[in-house]
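Fold in tokens:
===
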Amino acid sequence: MFRDRQEAGQKLGASLEALQLKDPIVLALPRGGVPIAAEVAKVLQAPMDLVIVRKVGAPGNPELAVAAIVDGDPPDVVLNREIVEAYALDDGALRVLIAQERPELERRRALYRGKEPPQSVAGKTVIVVDDGAATGTTMKVAIRALKRRSPRKIIVALPVAPPETVDELAQEADLTICLNQPARFRALSYYYGNFPQLSDNDVLDVMAQLRQDRHPAFERRSSGTNAASKSRHEAGT
């Protein structure tokens, strides 16, 4: 069991540090992956960014993903071809479904980034971090989108996940590191002593702390995100 997400991130960071990775960049899956990725980035002294994924639900069954949109410049759409074929969705129907989810992706991008674009991953060792993975669906989508952006390699870093999920992710990524692989996987919160649900404000607070600490992730950041954070606090949110 991990004490909290911060301890999990520190342990992941130690495991990754031993690999002496070249040109690493740490990408967090919001919201739960953010405090863990922040600790990993501190250990590695690596830049950190977010990889924002928005699921596109099937008609009449929004929990079943026919596709996902992954934030980027431009965003990537990753299709779940089995579900697309099962619902007999043509290109026009897919465009409508994807268009319906773009506003929420844009909202989260604006909230988390302000006007800053995602950091480039071209030629870099990309470390994708979350606080755990039951099925790994969101992580798989992120990996598939990131592969289109010419990274040196992609590493999945997780504190906990079931062995079958780790095996599936290992087929997608160049390397998968998972500290705890319980055969009988329970709810993710079971593996943490303190596991609060995180809000958008929690994400912004972690990113603001990294800026305050002059972390490498923000050496090239403009004042746009700072202004967004300042406005949020002035509004009392």
Remarks:
- Residues 220-237 have pLDDT under 50 and may be disordered.
- Strands lie at 24-28, 48-50, 53-58, 61-70, 76-79, 125-129, 153-160, 175-180.
- The longest helix spans residues 91-113.
